Structure of DUF523 domain-containing protein:
Amino acid sequence: MEKILVSACLLGSPVRYNGSDRLVDHPLMALWREQGRIVQLCPEVAAGFPTPRPPAEIEPGLMADDVLVDKARIFDQTGADVTSPFRLGAEIALETALSQGCRFALLTDGSPSCGTSFVYSGHFDGVAREGAGVVAALLSQNGITVFSENQIGQLAEALDNPS
Ligand code: SF4
């Protein structure tokens, strides 16, 4: 059965920067879990970040379609450049998806790693903007279709209609 790469925080793992989760209570998630389809990963934890950790945002100016993983810069709230470990997390996510044969990923929107439709401004001011995180961008660039937690229905349709 086809597997899906899923952000660990959507499955209830308390791995977000502030130690919280983003659990999605949806019957399809429960079904996919029972079916053994879910490949759970937190790219930031996989890259070695502790939890909790300072929040991080992608440098302003990069939009969804041109978030090139080799150009995106990510800084945490202390001003530290954390681009390199964030890229490592994205590479681990890609390797994991490819090794598990995942054509689809379900990722947490808004994250500088997992965001698929929006990220934050880069100024830690709570302002969202259109854009993608480095994990979503790298997966997309390698042919893996990414969905946000608000697109579970679309993901189910894609699973039912293999191309
Ligand atoms: Fe969730 Fe992704 Fe952030 Fe990990 S990196 S806490 S999986 S949004």
Summary: The two ends are 15 Å apart (CA to CA). Residues 4-160 form one domain. The pocket of iron/sulfur cluster is lined by residues 7-9, 15-16, 42-44, 108, 111, 113-114 (CB under 6 Å).
